Amino acid sequence: MTPDILAALEKARAAKQPIVLATQLPGGEQRLLPDPAAPEAVNEIARKVLQSDVSGTHKIDGVDWFMHAYNPPLRLVIVGAVHIAQALVRFSTACGYATTVVDPRRSFASDERFPDVEISTDWPDEAMDAFKPDSRTAVVTLTHDPKLDDPALDRALKSDAFYIGALGSRRTHAARLKRLAELGHSEDSMARIRGPVGLNIEAVTAPEIGASIIAEIIAVRRGAPLPPKSGPKSPTP
Amino acid sequence: MSDHVDDILSTAAGWRAAGELVAIATVTETWGSSPRPAGSQMAITKSGRMAGSVSGGCIEGAVADAALRTLESGVPQLLDFGVTHEQAWEVGLACGGKVKVFVEKLS
């Protein structure tokens, strides 16, 4: 890889611009795509590789090119700078998610409690409007407080976020869905919300709940089959 | 996030900027049960530093050896590891998968 290619690639990545490094195999000639100077058919392959986020070898005019997708990091917005959020950010950053914690309560959203992630102390609706969740964004609400969680969920449902999760018991969740319906959200749309949040691994401690949440986000992202949330909870002895 | 464990390119670029001789190995194709998908990377320096992976640990040693040759010669290599290849038995691709790895020098 030439210094020029490396510098251009690093610059695009720093600017969070999706980019493909195309390498001719086995010779090693390289170029960055999409590029206005490249044939449209080649740019089209590059765009598809970025969209699917699947790198691979493609034959173009009888020549093998390895198309390496460099997408900006997946993002996670956590609303509620609570204890579970402290645990979750450790897992999410380890998994490569650019993580932002939103909580207008400054005593919760302090640098001391969240030393390594971006913090927003705006109200969740404003924070979400600024953040602009897209199809590479997960949103998790953890405050238990409707005046903080609801505006965030409202904005999340209006976005392409690939994952929306909300902490709360089944009863809390039913009440939440009723309030969101009053804001005009359809049942189909609200079915996107995973509540109670996280895989059911009988998690108890904050780190365990954090692990169940990141595992569910990964499962949804990777298309793993998941049981529906709405089913009745099996009776506890 | 430049300190992310999976961001091998940034790690490699950092080593290069610090004056190390650095090669990058990238998985370009997989078949069967290879544990790491195409695009997985490993960075290797002449001084012996290593980051990332291109398999579940079966072929990293062989890839590192190839990387040192590419650092010497400057010539990239496309390595082919699979059950039909003699080398796969030598290095033991226990997962039974096949994988192609492109090795290049950061010039």
Account of the 3D structure:
- The complex is a heterodimer of chains A (237) and B (107).
- Chain A folds into two domains: 16-70, no CATH class; 75-221, NAD(P)-binding Rossmann-like Domain (Rossmann fold), CATH 3.40.50.
- In chain A, the strands form two sheets. Chain A has a six-stranded parallel sheet with strand order 7-6-5-8-9-10, sandwiched between helices. In chain A, strands 2-1-4-3 form a four-stranded antiparallel sheet.
- Chain A has eight helices and ten strands.
- The termini of chain A are far apart.
- In chain A, helix 5 (146-157) links the parallel strand 8 and strand 9.
- Chain A has helices at residues 3-14, 40-52, 83-94, 124-131, 146-157, 170-182, 187-190, 206-221; strands at residues 19-25, 30-33, 56-60, 63-70, 75-79, 98-102, 118-120, 137-141, 163-166, 193-194.
- Chain A is α/β, with parallel strands linked by helices and 237 residues long.
- In chain A, helix 3 packs across helix 8 (206-221) and helix 4 (124-131) packs parallel to helix 5.
- Residues 231-237 of chain A have low confidence and may be disordered.
- Chain B has 107 residues and is of the alpha+beta class.
- Chain B has one domain (8-105).
- Chain B has three helices and five strands, in the order αβββαβαβ.
- Chain B has helices at residues 8-17, 60-73, 86-91; strands spanning 22-31, 41-45, 50-52, 77-81, 98-105.
- Chain B has a five-stranded antiparallel sheet, with helices on both faces.
- The mean pLDDT of chain B is 85.
- The interface between A and B is medium-sized, with 25 and 25 residues.
